[in-house]
């Protein structure tokens, strides 16, 4: 039985989203303690502090970052511009301004802000690391490596720089060097989320037995990360441990009930591993409600109907797939198979 599996979602995540997420250090225990002690949400708390100290550029910068996170772009610009009039030489403002421009897709302005930050603080590696990452996003590997070398020349303890260097090697197909640098990043910061994710993914791709331990470590250290949990569930699914995968997919659905990728994979497992085509059909129907153009889900809806003996309905679904994409080979094979059965 040929059934189409979706392209690994974690591989398909864009480098641009990685840039916006940032390479900063993660301290889950510290964050949890602060969250427990906080009497208000972060924005309300910082608004109160600014009301008491309206010229504090650090507070304005922190609030601008919160505004960027919540996509309140105009308010973020307002805080950055106000802070720059107070202290135009504060390098963190230019780093935040770069994030703001890049969140809008304004690469030239974002790059300019990073260059200004580097000019103001030539001994600060952060602008260089972000310039390296931005160059990588734009496909300029040589420039990315140049900025990265300059960042590491300022100090060898820089997990973010090693992470970006690893991504440069990965894009160039040098997985050995990529792994070496991912591990260096983790050695310097054991809670480097993206480095942990990439290491687990690379090991899984290589069928290295260390893959599971790295992916599990990521989930244990970032239990609220749906991205990490999805990677673990997908790992178990691809290594024919459907019961373990199912448990993690269910956890994701509790937080994100309409996640079409999880719903698709649950449909796939019910169809292939558990041999429950009726249950699979329900999942594929949910996926198609969320995204009617998800052709892989539509094709597997046909497979679920076919596995249930509902050949006429399956044929109609396969025909719909081919109408939407003429060269969809699996649907064409399925129609030919049904033709042979009807003779």
Structure report:
With 343 residues, the protein is mainly α. It has a domain at 257-343: Tetratricopeptide repeat domain (Serine Threonine Protein Phosphatase 5, Tetratricopeptide repeat). It is built from 21 helices and no strands. The chain has helices at 9-12, 15-21, 28-37, 42-52, 57-69, 73-86, 91-103, 107-120, 125-137, 141-153, 159-171, 175-188, 193-205, 210-221, 226-238, 242-255, 260-272, 277-290, 295-307, 311-324, 329-341. The protein is elongated. It starts with 8 loop residues before the first helix and ends with a helix. The model is unreliable at 1-22 and 24-39 (pLDDT under 50).
Could you name the key traits of this structure?
single chain, 343 residues, mainly alpha, Serine Threonine Protein Phosphatase 5, Tetratricopeptide repeat, 21 helices, disordered N terminus
């Amino acid at each position: 039985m040929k059934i189409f599996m979706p392209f690994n979602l974690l591989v398909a995540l864009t480098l641009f989203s990685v840039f916006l997420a940032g390479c900063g250090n993660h301290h889950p225990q510290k964050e949890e303690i602060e969250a427990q002690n906080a009497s208000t949400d972060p924005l309300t708390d910082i608004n109160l502090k600014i009301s008491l100290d309206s010229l504090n550029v650090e507070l304005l910068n922190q609030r601008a970052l919160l505004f960027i996170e919540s996509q309140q772009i105009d308010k973020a610009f307002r805080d950055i511009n106000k802070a720059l009039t107070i202290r135009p030489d504060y390098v963190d403002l230019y780093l935040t301004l770069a994030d703001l421009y890049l969140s809008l897709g304004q690469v030239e302005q974002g790059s300019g802000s990073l260059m200004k930050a580097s000019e103001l603080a030539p001994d600060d590696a952060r602008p260089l690391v972000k310039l390296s990452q931005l160059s990588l996003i734009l496909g300029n590997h040589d420039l990315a490596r140049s900025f990265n070398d300059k960042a590491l020349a300022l100090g060898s303890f820089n997990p973010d720089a090693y992470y970006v260097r690893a991504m440069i090697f990965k894009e160039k197909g040098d997985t050995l060097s990529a792994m070496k640098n991912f591990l260096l990043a983790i050695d310097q910061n054991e809670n480097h989320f993206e480095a942990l994710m990439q290491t687990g993914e690379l090991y899984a791709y290589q069928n290295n037995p260390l893959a599971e331990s790295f992916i599990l470590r990521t989930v244990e250290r970032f239990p609220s990360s749906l991205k990490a949990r999805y990677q673990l569930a997908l790992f178990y699914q691809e290594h024919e441990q459907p019961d373990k995968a199912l448990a993690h997919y269910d956890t994701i659905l509790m937080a994100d009930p309409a996640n079409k990728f999880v719903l698709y994979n649950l449909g796939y497992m019910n169809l292939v591993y558990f041999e429950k085509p009726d249950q699979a059909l329900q999942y594929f129907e949910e996926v198609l409600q969320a995204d009617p153009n998800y052709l892989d889900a539509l094709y597997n809806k046909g497979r679920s109907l076919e596995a249930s003996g509902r050949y006429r309905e399956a044929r109609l679904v396969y025909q719909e797939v081919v109408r939407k994409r003429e060269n969809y080979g699996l649907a064409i094979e399925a129609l030919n198979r049904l033709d042979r059965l009807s003779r």
